[in-house]
Amino acid sequence: MVALSDVLASNAQIQSNLPKGLIAIFAGATSGIGEVTLKTFVRYAVEPRIYIIARNQTAAERVIAECRQINAKGQYEFIYADLMLIKETDRACEQIKRKEKLVNLVVLSAGQFIFDRKPTSEGLNALLATGCYSRFRIAQQLLPLLTAAASTTPLARVVNVSSGTYEGDVVTSDMQVQNLSFTKAFSEMKPHVASIATLYLEALADQAPTVSFVHDFPGPVYSNLHKNAIGVFGLLIRVITEVIYAFLGRWLFVPIEESGERHVYFATSKNYRPRAGTAVGMALEGVNAAEGSDGLVGSGVYSINWDGEKRTEASVSALKKLRAKGVKEIVWDHVTGEFDRITAGM
Ligand SMILES: NC(=O)c1ccc[n+]([C@@H]2O[C@H](COP(=O)([O-])OP(=O)(O)OC[C@H]3O[C@@H](n4cnc5c(N)ncnc54)[C@H](OP(=O)(O)O)[C@@H]3O)[C@@H](O)[C@H]2O)c1
User: Fold this and answer.
1) Among 51, 55, 159, 257, which is best to mutate for testing ligand 1, by the most ligand atoms less than 8 A from CB?
2) pLDDT at res. 285
3) d(Cα 323, Cα 330) in Å, to the nearest integer?
4) CA distance 72 to 322
5) Can you tell me the distance from the alpha carbon of 303 to that of 296, in angstroms, rounded to the nearest whole number?
């Protein structure tokens, strides 16, 4: 476990260790983990330029006003996009690409519990559309800007707040997990999502070895996630989460402020350095690279638990088996195939 004191000590040096004017994209920072990570980041960063992609304009205005109070020298811009849709995701990325030549940091936390068999208007599983596909698309679309940042600045990183360390089987026969029974979907969704995210990020790292990628599981964090869960199953999640939080919250949940600090650490520490190049983040003495998702130290993609460490050997060995079976290529072909299908004729 990375001690919280080490996290705080590292974050406290961002101001003196990283350059001013870092450019960061937060997809889903109008609430929850994204919001607290954004506010923590702007507390430390010098004159950052921030783009927030989400849907709720009122919440975005509130978050931006609070960020201005924390760091008046930062620049903040809201980009409206429904990240359930790839075309909207592309439009948001285009807006950023028109304005910026490089991007230092991309934090992906947009998502909603939607348990609905009905696919999106673009034919994607509604739960995976925001939780996976649009996140993959943002990372892919902004990869040239991240690579540009890696060549001239010390930070070029993507942080995907999802289900790192829970890798396991991938449902290759039904990549969108649309046709499984309810109970099977429930048990197979988490390893499927975790694995496709890590393997997709590994494929991006192969193309951009000077950029680093963190895929974390934030632990249970009390936010709006369960409150906005949709469907009968969503109601169940709302009730169960409130009951567990009321009785066991202080022991089982990661305090949201701590989650913000830890995510800023994931976003900036040299622990999660790229496999090549000099964009290692905070070059602090005594900090060495962590073990990557392939089991090698400093290999550029990190699947980690809420505390910054990998959970067990199980995820490393599950990923090893998936790579040996060619599932990394299957994931890449599937995801890019869906993007091509959706954007054909645009
Ligand atoms: N909290 C936890 O315990 C927990 C545990 C494990 C994993 N996670 C992961 O962390 C992610 C974030 O959780 P959280 O606790 O921060 O949730 P949250 O408080 O509900 O925040 C979700 C964010 O996603 C945005 N969003 C949702 N649907 C969107 C859409 N279609 N288009 C654009 N933005 C959208 C929301 O903004 P708008 O409403 O403004 O669009 C909001 O900013 C989850 O999706 C999940 O992947 C969380």
Assistant:
1) 55
2) 80
3) 10
4) 47
5) 12
Q: Which residues' Cβ are closer than 6 Å to ligand 1?
A: 28-34, 54-56, 59, 82-84, 109-112, 130-131, 161-162, 217-218, 220-221, 223-225, 228
Matching residue, tokens 């599932």: 327
Helix, strand, coil share (%) of the chain residues, nearest 5: 50, 10, 40
Q: Does 346 fall in a domain?
A: no
- Please, which residues have CB within 8 angstroms of residue 243's CB and are 6 or more apart in sequence? none
> Band of the pLDDT at 199, cuts 50, 70, 90?
very high
Sign of the dihedral through C-alpha 219, 164, 110, 299: positive
Q: Identify the CA nearest to 113 among candidates 202, 185, 40.
A: 185
**Atom of ligand 1 lying closest to residue 254 CA:** 3
- The reported pLDDT for the residue numbered 31 is 98
Q: Which residue's C-alpha comes closest to atom 7 of ligand 1?
A: 162
Asked if residue 264 and residue 119 are part of one domain, the reply reads yes
* Residue 230 is assigned to a structural domain of this protein: yes
Give 118-173 pLDDT, tens digit per residue: 899 999 999 999 999 999 999 999 999 999 999 999 999 999 999 999 999 999 99
CA–CA separation, 316 and 322 (whole Å): 10
Q: Scanning the structure block, which residue is given the tokens 């409150």?
A: 227
| Same domain, residue pair 145 and 247 | no
How far apart, in whole angstroms, are the C-alpha atoms of residue 305 and residue 65? 31
The CATH number assigned to the domain holding 319 equals 3.40.50.720
Residues 171, 233, single domain; the answer is no
130 lies in the same domain as 157: yes
Residues 297 and 232 in one domain: no
Are 230 and 112 in a shared domain? no
* Separation of CA 180 and ligand 1 centre (Å): 24
Residues 54 and 10 in one domain: yes
From CA 253, how far away is CA 160, in angstroms rounded? 19
User: In terms of residue numbers, what domain contains 233?
Assistant: 226-253
Distance, in Å, from the CA atom of 271 to the CA atom of 65, rounded to the nearest integer, reads 32
